[in-house]
Design a protein that fits this description.
heterodimer, A: Immunoglobulin-like, four-stranded antiparallel β-sheet, 2 helices, 7% helix, B: mainly alpha, disordered N terminus, Permease (chain B), transmembrane helix (chain B)
Chain lengths: 481, 361
């Protein structure tokens, strides 16, 4: 008996020389085919250039902050790329850096809302594969809603906070109370300050996914002003004063931050002054993209302090007024009687603000200005006053002034009987929310954060002057950022 | 002649040739020696454990500072691989015992399809039921050959089972998820390559010539087993499997730690970014490291950001089929010529798969 009889052979397997030859052909053929495949695939690998493995971008932050980074992970070390040839559609300025396998594109300014962007990086040459390749990445930025406050208490109806998408859609009431002083929203949380019959304030926090407002614990009879939230971190802050009881006042115009994060448990974070003691706060605002606030006390001392890290405040000197930040940046604008100053809180530098003056007629009076970028482009509201017959006629317009002082109208009320009462720029400087009301309108009688009756807010795209949407009410959330 | 007839004929021919008397004497003699060795091994093991516990308890904290950073890194990296691997190795052993000891004799063979291709496909998926490391599959494969599988079929099982089993698939998923198609490429690659080998060797006219003379001789003693309860056999098998696995695991972990602390990261990076060299570099690493397929995904995860996905796929496909440890184990069954042929085919196929993934991923 041969040893092979011990083991079964496959059906179809030959025997003897013929079988051996067939097996050898099958084995050699398989090896040859595999070797050819390895050679061809190796050539294909060499012939193709670097490829994009992965990309990372926080699209939520791209619309509220400048300096956001798109990280392109390439499948090998990058030797060079054609930086001048980088194309972003729609146009956006970027700077590129190479670090081994990573190409980082930093956007100079915040991006537009609800926009499909395409990024093309040409001439990418790998350290291993010399064939230049073009990397392409697409992303879409999120849309946004506009929140407005509609005061109707003069008509005996409750005040409401409404939310309306910028791309159309029906307004939705997200909070209602007999009298609402101010509000702010962070993610799904809406914070609203209401006014009691005795004039004191209550603070409500509403999770808009569930809808039931919860009263936030503040001292009985306290008053609140300047409520605002961070556009990038789950933080809110307000200036709190409590009534004097037995000669003791627990809070006296103190800035209190609230940690809105899930882990924060709505913790109250008192913000102390330069001397480490409680300070009386005149005005304040969040530094975009950080957990810091810039504070001006009643002695007009301005300082920056991180409400989470509890570090020593950084003084910025004494200044007359906080004007705000260049949208999406950490460039703070302050005003003094003799000049304006731009502080870059990222590096601590400061420069005198030099703005090109617009050529306006004698009967036109300039209103507040808002910086639009890090150069000298700004928005300004103008009111023209003329005498027609025996009556004064007023009209208002919102205009953009460019680096050369050229004036361009952005918005004017369609109804000449209306006046621009307030305007606020979106965090990415793409839109401006203009609050207008009839010239004949009266003040609404709210002691803190007063407004006008019959207010209407119009959102306008600054670059084109296109009206994006209109909503009833005023006090756009962009005014409290 | 049909296959069942061949198997029956073989059994008939083999039965009278079984040297029961000598075989049993051999086994009876062998029973005493393992017990003696087991006692010695147990004592040594306990001694080592006590020794290390003693070091941990009585040595001053500062003693660790005497070791250089490189040595500390070596121990940390090696031990981390062992800690990651152990649960899965033991799980594999327990499942293997369940299938080998507790399933009725011949159960699997009776239920295999008759068609050769479908039969190989079924065998390549049998790892789902026999989820053990590749080193555990070698003795199992020998047993399957003895019970009537052809060499081609047994090779298909041997090469596929370490990859196409739930433990390996789950650990690969845990390590890489669905990223870069690594998991899918590993599963499909293992399946195709194992069936390719089975298809090639199904044509061999003289399958017995693929086996070593020693294994042919051992066939005669295949059924000389000491009567024992299933529980006893389970315990014995656990001891045997553990004894086979642990040295391989410890050596593999030590080599893994050694490579990570001695091989310059720049060298790895340079190799890892080359779409061609990275594939062959990780195949070479898989060959040397010889780490169990149940845990190799965790091992190579450390290189995940350094090497291209195709190289990782080549590592995860080639390693479970061919490595130093597997060749040593397979040499107990197959001739050197057969192993060279299998290694060349598996190597080329794994390289082609890795390069294809690098081209497409």
């Amino acid at each position: 008996m041969s040893s092979d009889e011990l083991l079964p052979a496959e059906p179809g397997a030959g025997s003897g020389a013929r079988g051996t030859s067939a097996f050898a052909r099958r084995l050699a053929g398989s090896i040859a085919v595999l070797a050819l495949a390895v050679g061809w695939l190796a050539f294909a690998n060499i012939a193709q250039g670097p490829r994009l493995n992965d990309a990372q971008l926080d699209v939520q932050r791209t619309t509220v902050l400048a300096g956001q980074k798109l990280t392109l992970e390439v499948n090998q070390s990058v030797a060079s790329l054609d930086e001048a040839g980088i194309v972003i559609e729609p146009e956006a300025a970027v700077t590129a850096e190479i670090d081994d396998r990573t190409i980082t594109l930093t956007f100079d300014a915040p991006l537009a809302h609800a926009t499909d962007y395409t990024v093309r990086v040409p001439g990418v040459v790998g350290a291993v594969q010399p064939t230049p390749a073009t990397l392409e990445y697409e992303f879409t930025t999120p849309g946004t809603d506009l929140y407005t406050l509609i005061r109707r208490s003069d008509r005996g109806e409750p005040d409401v906070v409404q939310r309306k998408p910028l791309d159309g859609g029906e307004p939705e009431t997200v909070f209602e109370a007999p009298r609402i002083q101010e509000f702010a929203h962070s993610g799904d949380l809406l914070l609203a300050v209401t006014i009691e019959d005795d004039g004191s304030n209550l603070l409500f926090v509403t999770d808009m996914r569930q809808g039931e407002p919860q009263q936030f614990g503040i001292p009985r009879g306290a008053s609140i002003r300047d409520l605002a939230v961070s556009t990038t971190n789950p933080l809110a802050a307000l200036v709190l004063s409590s009534p004097e009881i037995d000669g003791v006042r627990d809070f006296d115009r103190e800035l209190i931050a609230i940690d809105l994060s899930t882990n924060g448990g709505m913790e109250l974070l008192p913000v102390l002054g330069l001397d480490g003691e409680k300070s009386h706060v005149s005005s304040w605002m969040f530094v975009p993209g950080t957990t810091s606030v810039v504070v001006q006390d009643f002695e007009q001392s301005v300082f920056v302090v991180d409400v989470i890290a509890k570090q020593q405040p950084s003084p910025l000197g004494v200044h007359t007024e906080l004007r705000g930040f260049v949208p999406g940046t950490t460039q703070l604008i302050v005003a003094d009687p003799d000049r304006g100053v731009r502080f870059d809180l990222a590096d601590g530098s400061s420069t005198t603000l030099e703005l090109a003056s617009a050529d306006i007629a004698d009967h036109v009076y300039p209103g507040p200005i808002t910086m639009l970028d890090g150069r000298s482009r700004y928005l300004i509201s103008l009111v023209a006053a003329t005498v027609e017959g025996d009556r004064n006629v007023r009209s208002s317009v919102l205009a953009e002034v460019d680096d050369d002082g050229e004036l361009r109208e952005v918005f004017a009320p369609a109804d000449e009987a209306s006046l621009i009462r307030e305007y606020c720029v979106s965090p990415n400087a793409q839109f401006v929310a203009v609050a207008q009301s009839p010239q004949a309108g009266t003040v609404d009688g709210y002691r803190e954060n007063p407004g006008f009756t019959e207010m209407m807010t119009t959102v306008v795209e600054i670059a084109t002057g296109r009206t994006v949407m209109s909503a009833v009410g005023g006090f756009s959330e962009w005014c409290s950022d | 002649m049909s296959r069942p007839q061949l198997r029956d004929a073989r059994r008939d021919q083999r039965s009278p040739a079984r040297p029961h008397t000598s075989g049993r004497q051999h086994h009876h003699g062998a029973i005493e020696r393992p017990r003696g060795r087991a006692g010695l091994g147990l004592a040594l093991g306990l001694g080592l454990v006590l020794f290390f516990v003693g070091i941990r308890v009585f040595a001053p904290e500062a003693l660790g500072d005497l070791l250089s950073n490189t040595v500390q890194d070596f121990f940390t990296l090696s031990i981390s691989v062992i800690i990651e691997s152990l649960p899965f190795v033991f799980l594999g052993i327990l499942l293997s015992i369940g299938v080998q000891v507790w399933l009725p004799d011949g159960f699997l063979l009776r239920h295999l399809p008759k068609n050769a291709v479908v039969r190989r496909v079924t065998l390549s998926l049998l790892g789902v039921l026999l989820p053990v490391c590749e080193c555990g599959n070698v003795p199992l494969t020998r047993g399957l050959i003895l019970r009537g599988l052809t060499v081609g079929e047994s090779m298909t099982f041997l090469l596929a089972a370490p990859i196409l089993n739930p433990v390996t698939i789950i650990t690969t998923y845990q390590a890489f998820g669905w990223s870069d198609g690594i998991l899918v490429s590993r599963i499909l690659g293992g399946f195709v390559i194992a069936n390719l080998i089975g298809w090639i060797y199904s044509r061999h006219p003289s399958p017995m010539s693929l086996l070593t003379p020693k294994f042919q001789a051992s066939c005669a003693h295949a059924h000389d087993e000491v009567p024992a309860s299933r529980s006893r056999r389970s315990v014995d098998m656990f001891a045997k499997e553990t004894a086979a696995m642990m040295p391989a695991l410890f050596v593999g972990s030590a080599i893994a730690g050694l490579i990570q602390v001695t091989v310059s990261r720049d060298v790895l990076l340079t190799l890892g970014q080359n779409p061609i060299l990275s594939v062959f570099a990780l195949m070479a690493l898989a060959f040397v490291v010889a780490i169990c397929s149940n845990v190799d995904a965790f091992f190579i995860l450390a290189f995940g950001s350094t090497f291209m996905p195709g190289a990782i796929v080549a590592f995860l496909v080639f390693g479970p089929m061919i490595d130093v440890k597997m060749l040593a184990l397979m040499r107990t069954t197959f001739t050197a010529k057969t192993l060279v042929q299998v290694t060349v085919v598996v190597g080329l196929a794994s390289a082609a798969l890795g390069l294809a993934v690098n081209t497409l991923a």
